[in-house]
Amino acid sequence: MGRSFLLQTLSHTPPWVYAMFILLVFFGHRQSRGRTIGRGGLIVLPLAMLCFSLYGVVSSFGLVPPPLLAWGLGFLLPVALGVRMLTPKGVIYASSGSFLVPGSWLPLVLMMAIFCVKYLVGFATARDLPVIHLPWFIASVSFAFGLFSGALCARGIGILRSA
Asked: Is 126 helix (H, G, I), strand (E, B) or coil?
């Protein structure tokens, strides 16, 4: 497994994956700067990443209870326990219904984590690696998808609660 394997893998990656990567980096970089954002804007990114992570589970493992349960547990953990911890310090609520949110690299890290997990599962599926069928792998990947999207949602909930 050398350089040619990596180049071959990247050359067989569909173009939409690169476009998604660039889009996520763009949105993640925007989150790194302080900005004013309305309630609707606070909901869009966490909801989009929730859908992307849930799509990752369903498209990889099917619409069956075990992976969905693992995803749900991963999602609920940061939402139930981490809202206060994941809320950025220094959020200011404006009377106009908008929020002044300080910049943070955390959303980019979480979005890239979801992207990387999806990419690796896609790679394993395309190569028909046996690990893709192992229960521990399915549970771990599903839990990770839920955990990362749950952390983004917990952050958004925390910001909204600061009103």
From this structure: helix
